[in-house]
C-alpha cells in the first residue's frame, strides 16, 4: 500500500477546497438547505462542469472522469469540511455504483452519462434501515424489502410490465431526485426475493414528501408508490439474490469510506475554527487557548481527527482494491474496514463538534453558530447509517472476532 497521494489527487483536493471556500460558507449552506431542491443547483452545475465531481469515480466510457474510490473520498473530505448540501452521496455513491455493476448495458449508457454530467440526480429508496441494507450494521440477506407481507414495497409483474406498490421512508434526496432506484419484493412469500427497480420521478402514482430532519444538509423524503410503473435493474432476469446482497455490501463499503471522509473533513474544520477562535478570545488578560487545560482538550481532538483520517483513507484504499479488475485480498475486507472507519469518524466528529460548542462559550450555544451544523451532521449520520456500536459489532462478526453465540449489535 502506497500512502502517498499523487499530484493529481492533491490538485483535486486543492481545486475543490478553493471553490467551496468561496461558495459554501455557513450562511450559504443554510440558504441552500431552505431551497426546494435542498441544495444550490447552480453550484452543483459548476462542480459538474468545472471539476467533473459527479462522475469522478465513473468510467470514462460512460462520461465519467475515470478516477477511483481514493479520489472520490478525497473530494468528499473537502465537501464534508463545509457540509456541502448536494446530491453527491445519493446519486454518485449509492445509486451510480449499483447501476454500473448490476445494470444492463442499455441502462448504463442511458443513465450513467447523465449522472456524470450532473444533469440527473438519483436516490436509493429502500424500506429497511439504510445501514442494514448496505451491510454496515447487520446482514442484508433478510426480507428488508417487505418479505411478501404487508409493508415495504411489493412488485408485481403484469402483461404490460412491472408495477410497484408500497412506501419507503428516510430516502436521502428522495424529494428532488430525477430517478429512484427502489428495492421491492417480488414473487410472493414462499419464492420471493428482493430486486431493484428504476422509477422515473414523473411516473404516475408516485408521491414524494420532504421530511423535517435533524440535519438540513442531508434532506430526506417519504416515497409512496401506488401502482407505479418500473423497470427492473439488470433486465428481465436481473442479478441473483446473493449477487445483489454482495453488490450492496460493496456499495456500503464505498459509502462508509465516503461518509467517514466527510466526517473527518467536518471534524477538521470544527477543530481548526475552534483553535482560531481561542487564539483571539481573551480571559483574565490572556488568550483562552493559552490555558493548559484547553490545550489538552484541543490536542485530544487533534489526535482523534488524525486517527479517523487514517482509517478513512485506508477504507478508501480497500474500496478501490475491491472494485479493481482483479479484486484483492479477502472478499469481505471492505465490509469490515468501511464500517470500522465510519464508526471511528462519526465518534470523532461527535466529540470534536461537542467540544467546539463548549469551547466557543456562550456564542457556541446559540443556534445561529456554525458549530451546531457540525454536531447535527454527526448525530444524523449515526441515526441513518449507525449506530456506532452496531457498526463495530457487525464488522467484528464479519472479521470472525466475535463467536457465533454473540448476537448482532451486542458490542457497545
Question: Characteristics of this structure?
Answer:
single chain; 412 residues; alpha+beta; Butyryl-Coa Dehydrogenase, subunit A, domain 1; Butyryl-CoA Dehydrogenase, subunit A, domain 2; Butyryl-CoA Dehydrogenase, subunit A, domain 3; two-stranded antiparallel sheet; 12 helices; 9 strands; 50% helix
| CATH topological fold name of the largest domain | Butyryl-CoA Dehydrogenase, subunit A, domain 3
> What is the C-alpha radius of gyration, as a whole number of Å?
21 Å
CATH class of the largest domain: Mainly Alpha
Q: What is the average per-residue confidence, as pLDDT, rounded to a whole number?
A: 89
Q: Can you say what the CATH homologous superfamily of the largest domain is?
A: Butyryl-CoA Dehydrogenase, subunit A, domain 3
| Strand-pairing-aware structural class | alpha+beta
User: What is the first-to-last residue Cα distance?
Assistant: 31 Å
Q: Tell me the number of structural domains.
A: 3
